[in-house]
Amino acid sequence: MSDSHTDTQSVRKKMNGAEALVQSLVREGVEVVFAYPGGASMPMHQALSHEPSIRTILPRHEQGGAFAAEGYGRVTGKVGVCMSTSGPGATNMITPIADAFLDSVPMVAITAQVGSGLIGSSAFQETDVFGMTAPIVKHSYLVTKLEDIPRIIKEAFYIARTGRPGPVVIDIPKNFQEGIFEPDFDAPMDLPGYRPELPLPAEALDAVLPVLMSAKRPAIYAGGGVVIAEAGEQLREFAERLQIPVATTLMGIGAMPEEHPLSVRWLGMHGAVYANNTVNEADVVLAIGARFDDRVTGAVKTFCEHARIIHIDYDAAELNKNKKVEMAIRADAGAALKYMNAKLEQAGCSVKPYALENRPEWFGIIEQWKKDYPLCYETREHEIAPQAVIEELYRQMNGREAVICTGVGQHQMFAAQFYRFNKPRRLSTSGGLGSMGYGLPAAMGAHVAYPELPVINIDGDGSFLMNVQELATIRTEHMPIKSIIIDNQHLGMVVQWEDLKYDSHRANTFLADPTEQYDPTHHTPDVLYPNYPVLCAGFGIKCERVIEPADLAPAIERMLASEEAYVLDVMVPHDVHVLPMIPGGMGYRDVVLERIAGDGKGRKASDLGKEIPSAL
Predict the structure, then answer these.
(1) Distance CA 282, CA 362 (A)
(2) 125 an active-site residue?
(3) Which of 9, 14, 124, 378 is catalytic?
(4) What is the mean pLDDT of the chain?
(5) Within the chain, how many helices (H) and strands (E) appear?
(6) Among this protein's residues, is 23 annotated catalytic?
(7) 493 is catalytic
(8) pTM (2 decimals)?
């Protein structure tokens, strides 16, 4: 035995499992843990309370804590950490775990469990968290041996952040939290079969370049995988070298600066018409870090039906899964773009600024689409258009960097449409799972990650209320998070579908008292419930209700100037639709451009839309 090894062994000290867990978190560089205590997790909280290098934040609901950890992971790329007690504490985190899984967010969820001798006995607050979460995690652990705790923590963080990131669950029985041992923090990982490092498929990537260079109408369709790979700069450089327009997915927003002339913003059900047209009418499409989600493709059979499609993705399971393509290449998006940029540089294909003459026919068509089908909205007297709220916020931010979080619903789409994102990881929103209640707690995670940046939660009245209790966390943790509630007193996105499919018949989509429905022409704002100014005051947070269009800009100015948390409850009409809209299962040319309610006579969705003329 070497002297160094003897020294290492001699400095080990005995501690309990919870203390070993916390010291393992320290070694992983964990800055913050969002943790709600309970009987089975008390030892872990006691250990956290004695560790000054980790900030432990008490959410007011385990779902809020897990969404906050996810928000932290989403905006940083680091592993977010949340913790709960057994039973209901653990089950309350299942929705954020699923959300992280579908959006490939690195997260470690630590759940306490009843004592190992009680597992399977239906003990108080026992649930099979390992089994419940199995379909929605990248990996999961049930600790069965005290000595395994340091190794399991090391493995969990490695798995969560490498390859295609995702959530990992660690379920720790209480007796192992309390057990005393000498931990080995240098124990090697034991992960047979897990090899996240990919060899660079140089030959396959070499074959991509001539296809793209010979295209007359090329397009790039970039997804969240580009953001995960931190490859935004490589993407921009690649697009500029080959002068290719770039559309992103909702998860890929910011991967290409949206104010860049080669950006056509984002595509899909509520994406810009010119983005959907560009990708669908291209002759060659490079899909990179994207998975051909149904909200992007619509009718997958007709998506890019005339194009040669090249698909580059880290996850082999995504290749040819939803859409059969001509060239399917398993590669990390960042490594692939870096390699292709280098090959283009060697070939003398330099970075050049956008100019119409670079591709006069193709760029001319796209510029005309931008003129003919801009993102726009209707304005009405005495009513605040929800889109105008986002526009005014963006105007007042005046190019200042911020993190925007959202709930899920119409406000989410309006935020993505009318706020411009020029950097990745500056929009934090729930994509694949579409989880209402995400925005407010995610903003907590974003603020912890970037305390120097403004963090603004754009929410709906339905989504905001789902985790409104986190206002208490925001107040006690002195987080200067700003929230704008786009308040239409309805579940707006469901209302939009009721208009389209059910002749505007309302079925449990009105959130207020029917006798006190908001009427912009004759309103009595004090009786509208929830009364958000009063509710927020109960949490010690300033809130204004905004009703008149003339009051909007000054209210946003006051909110942004505040050094404390602030909420604006902005009343908007409930009959505004998110447009454009490609109805589910339809193609990009069946887009709805104007608000049209169904007539109750079974008209097809395509009959309600305006078929976009094709440039093909």
Answers:
(1) 9
(2) yes
(3) 124
(4) 93
(5) 25, 20
(6) no
(7) yes
(8) 0.94
412 included as an active-site residue: no
Residues forming beta bridges with residue 180, ordered by sequence position: 16
**596 is a domain residue:** no
Inform me whether the pLDDT recorded for 244 exceeds 80.
yes
Looking at the fold, whether 361 and 395 belong to one and the same domain comes out as no
Q: Flag whether pLDDT at 106 surpasses 70.
A: yes
Cα separations in angstroms, 560 against 20, 32, 62, 451, 484:
43, 26, 29, 15, 11
For 507-565, write each residue's pLDDT tens digit: 999 998 776 666 655 555 556 788 999 999 999 999 999 999 999 999 999 999 999 99
Residue-level pLDDT at 8? 43
Contact 89, 45 (CB under 8 A): no
Cα distance between residue 146 and residue 15, in whole Å: 11
Q: Which of 107, 444, 493, 559 is catalytic?
A: 493
At residue 95, does pLDDT exceed 60? yes
Quote the pLDDT of residue 81: 98
The catalytically annotated residue of 78, 138, 154, 174 is 174
| Catalytic-role residue among 28, 62, 240, 470 | 62
pLDDT per position as a tens digit, 264-320: 999 999 999 999 999 999 999 999 999 999 999 999 999 999 999 999 999 999 999
Residue 5 has a pLDDT of 43
Assess whether 397 carries a catalytic annotation: no
Q: Rounded CA gap, 267 and 416, in Å?
A: 11
Confidence of residue 236 (pLDDT cuts 50, 70, 90): very high
CA angle 26, 30, 32 (to 5 degrees): 120
Using CA of residue 259, residue 262, residue 266, residue 270, what is the dihedral sign? Answer: positive
Counting the structural domains of the chain, the total is 3
The one catalytic residue in 125, 243, 396, 469 is: 125
What is the CATH classification number for the domain harbouring 350? 3.40.50.1220
Angle (nearest 5°) at CA 559 between 553 and 565: 160
What residues make up the domain containing 23? 14-181
CA atoms of 207 and 209, how far apart (whole Å): 6
H helices present in 467-571, as ranges: 470-476, 492-501, 532-538, 549-561
Residue 1 lies in a domain: no
Q: What are phi and psi of 81, to 5 degrees?
A: -125, 130
